[in-house]
């Protein structure tokens, strides 16, 4: 069977209770003014560094319309943030304007991932596949999307803490911005499964069931809870379930007794939390495993990006590579795929 595994590392010397206490302490000391003063310097620097790296891409890729659109978004956001460089943090109207600008910037960048993906597809269709160029693009996109994750995290924390917003994906009064000090892992697993199931049933008119099991070595009688960003965990699990469901349904489409279930095992040991997703989708040859994390590779047909519709990710080949970035870059974790 195909096995998808990722681990969340429990940092040495920091248990979950201590880490939770530190975050709450920082929240108590949080100040809208100091956050403003930090972000008005930090965010433009991050955008400038990203734009500089974009300009180092191959000229033929930079000529693609979708890449040019992404560049224009970054430039516009950069210029808007510069307007706050010399404005006074003592003025409450300035703080409100900054909050409003951050919300606009976040919304403007919502479709950066599929739009950049469309640019890569446009390049590949026009110029074909070049291993050397592909390697350079892979390196760039890893850095580009890692920077985007951290950029949005900073914006979300400010808008959620000081703007009175709620996280639309996982609203909860006890969340600290995007962070849940008591993230129930099994609940996020179920949530991601149900969302993937809905898409699967829309496309295939059916879906495999989920069997979930928990093993808590620390406190066996309690559900597994960790300090984490639920939306990021959801994203990783959702992509895994989409891949598992598609493989399972397509392999067993003529099976009379229904589809074999997808199994999820959530385990909390003394040092690590692991989430293991198993399916009977036929597996992936070991020689092809690395391709699954290549932005220029997808097992699904390439989609077309329509501005008036919700941007699709299936077929762009971005689900697993970006999921690995969420795991490895934020929590020193591993996102591992095993084939057969």
Automatic annotation (TrEMBL):
Location in the cell: Mitochondrion matrix
Domain Histidine kinase/HSP90-like ATPase: 230-326
Top EC class for this record: transferase
GO molecular function terms attached to this record: ATP binding; pyruvate dehydrogenase (acetyl-transferring) kinase activity
The keyword Membrane is assigned to this record: no
Pfam families the record matches: BCDHK_Adom3, HATPase_c
The EC number(s) this enzyme carries: 2.7.11.-
Keywords carried by this UniProt record: ATP-binding, Kinase, Mitochondrion, Nucleotide-binding, Transferase, Transit peptide
SUPFAM superfamilies xref list: alpha-ketoacid dehydrogenase kinase, N-terminal domain, ATPase domain of HSP90 chaperone/DNA topoisomerase II/histidine kinase
Residue intervals of the Branched-chain alpha-ketoacid dehydrogenase kinase/Pyruvate dehydrogenase kinase N-terminal domain: 31-180
Gene3D superfamilies named among the record's database cross-references: Alpha-ketoacid/pyruvate dehydrogenase kinase, N-terminal domain, Histidine kinase-like ATPase, C-terminal domain
One GO location term (cellular component): mitochondrial matrix
CDD domains tied to this protein: HATPase_PDK-like
Matching InterPro entries: AK/P_DHK_N_sf (IPR036784), BCDHK/PDK_N (IPR018955), BCKD/PDK (IPR039028), HATPase_C_sf (IPR036890), HATPase_dom (IPR003594)
Family the UniProt entry places it in: Belongs to the PDK/BCKDK protein kinase family.
PANTHER family: [PYRUVATE DEHYDROGENASE (ACETYL-TRANSFERRING)] KINASE ISOZYME 3, MITOCHONDRIAL, PYRUVATE DEHYDROGENASE KINASE
Name the record gives this protein: Protein-serine/threonine kinase
Organism annotation: Callorhinchus milii
Classification of source organism: Eukaryota, Metazoa, Chordata, Craniata, Vertebrata
